[in-house]
Amino acid sequence: FQGRKQIDAELLDELEEALIAADIGVPTTLHILENVRRGIARNQINDIDALKLAIKTELLSILQEAEKNGVVSEESVSETVSPYVMMIVGVNGVGKTTTIGKLAQRIKAEGNDVLICAADTFRAAASDQLAIWAERTGVPLIQQKQGTDPAAVLFDSLKAAKSRNSDVLIVDTAGRLHNKSNLMAELEKMKRVAGREVEGAPHETLLVIDAVTGQNGLEQARQFLKIAGVTGIVLTKLDGTAKGGIAVAIARELNLPIRYAGIGEKVDDLVVFDAEQYVNSLFE
Amino acid sequence: SLSDKLKRTLKNLRGEGVLTREHVEAALREIRMALLEADVNYKVAKDFIAAVKEKAEGQQVWTELKPSEQVVKIVYDELVELLGGTSSRLVFTKQIPNVVMIVGLQGSGKTTSTGKIAMWLAKNQERKPLLVSTDVYRPAAREQLKVIARATGQSIFEMPETNDARTLAREAYKHAQQTGFDTLLIDTAGRLHIDDELMEELVAIKGETKPIEILFVADAMTGQDAVRSGEEFHRRVGITGVMLTKMDGDARGGAALSIKQVTGQPVKFVGVGEKYDALEPFYPDRIAQRILG
Ligand SMILES: Nc1nc2c(ncn2[C@@H]2O[C@H](COP(=O)(O)OP(=O)(O)OP(=O)(O)O)[C@@H](O)[C@H]2O)c(=O)[nH]1
Ligand SMILES: Nc1nc2c(ncn2[C@@H]2O[C@H](COP(=O)(O)OP(=O)(O)OP(=O)(O)O)[C@@H](O)[C@H]2O)c(=O)[nH]1
Ligand SMILES: [Mg+2]
Ligand SMILES: [Mg+2]
Known about the structure:
Largest interface: A-B, 42 and 46 residues
Oligomer: heterodimer
Strand content of chain A: 5-15%
Number of helices of chain B: 11
Strand content of chain B: 5-15%
Strand order of the largest sheet of chain B: 3-2-4-1-5-6-7-8
Shape of chain A: elongated
Distance between the termini of chain A: 26 Å
Radius of gyration of chain B: 22 Å
Number of strands of chain A: 8
Bound molecules: guanosine-5'-triphosphate, magnesium ion
Strand order of the largest sheet of chain A: 3-2-4-1-5-6-7-8
Largest sheet of chain B: 8 strands, mixed
């Protein structure tokens, strides 16, 4: 391996750029390369394939660590607590409403009675959009007219879910930028309403992150975690060319696991997130 | 902020007559970090750094500024120049109607922006706009634009009997011609730049309506991929301008520089909120400051 150190320097630059290009971000990239450099110095990494494997291993361990610490799953909530409440949150346009259509399909197919709450009472035609998804999946929907207090729609939905013995209630919320304190406060209020009506609700709060998001995604996750108590991430639009690497930075800094990935606009385009498959795709 | 970081980096270097290579090298690393943190594409950042290096090295040290302040000024000026001071006023012809197409990735803010732009043109350029949604895919997309049209007092063309985007565009065009709307704003469905069929659909709509403006609507929080989507939309459809949305958030908006560099087309408008009057013309100096943090 005469020229080995030389190759590594240039190669490390290329690999650093690949990680940056995937939106992994500078701090996480430097952290990964630092560990890799140590492995090179100890002669544990001696060629390009070992180097790539080392980086993949670093990425995988970040994601798996978050999965361990992360999340609540429906199995951890007692059968007597009903309904299981899932709140879907995130900034504007990331794919919340579409994801709910996909989730409703999946959860219903697992044998559950699902109810959807149209708590985006703000945006033009938001409940019309969700109503079409509800119809497509054969899942009932609770909605009110535009301008109603979202906490009121949530309250009605919780009452309806309890009286119908629904297993799962999925709550759609309006897109909101995390730097708008009044909108974040609205989310907080909705959580309190849920918690008063059903013990431990919302049992799952999924933050939807668009795979094209850059470093701002980390700040989104910080604020939503702090104010809305996020329990997991849904990474959408992975069928595009963006790699969604910001989810790795989110996993590392906040220990939030990626629960699902959106891979298209149709009702079946949702998969349970597979960290190994994802890490391999980062290097394609 | 970048100025603080540069002050710290350069404080032990003596300022003597010219900005030395040492000054500049030390500063460039901080600048690269700031650009990447702001989501400027890493290749665009590389080219930018090279340009700054060339401008900075050997420059006479200005006596009123510290070396760090001088470097920041060079970077800021270069950024403002690249972002380009083109006018954001759309350029219209005598034709009836003039067509403006609104395109971009899913969820970037096109439908909302179509309403905003219509309102802005009516108010600031005395245009008579007609809206049409050619989004035949997304649930309640046409309904969404209809609600927006009603809320902003705009006219909208509807043809519920068809599910073909081309037909909607063509018929809306004819309707505008016959009824004297001087501007036709065409909202299109969000699509991936790698979806051949849908990209072809945009080319077909363009062919039918010969737009004077094709605006690429991009989310301010877009990361490294901005270069790919911007480049591909420009290559296949040909954009004439960019609208950067959700700038009321705290995303630094480096995507603006990336898209400008790779398409050569200017950012014309900025979306600054969910309400339909939340539209501003693009000011390069403001976004330059924001990118540099
Ligand atoms: N390609 C692709 N498009 C997606 C995916 N998920 C959602 N979309 C599209 O993204 C756009 C926005 O989706 P919505 O579900 O309306 O997003 P939202 O977060 O509810 O938006 P707001 O309620 O306005 O904040 C739509 O065009 C969807 O079809 C995905 O996984 N892949
Ligand atoms: N805060 C903020 N929200 C915006 C802005 N522009 C659009 N939005 C919001 O972003 C979300 C998506 O907007 P749409 O207009 O539905 O996006 P779209 O590009 O038409 O989506 P598709 O048709 O599905 O591709 C909505 O919640 C809008 O209210 C903006 O400048 N600021
Ligand atoms: Mg929605
Ligand atoms: Mg739209």
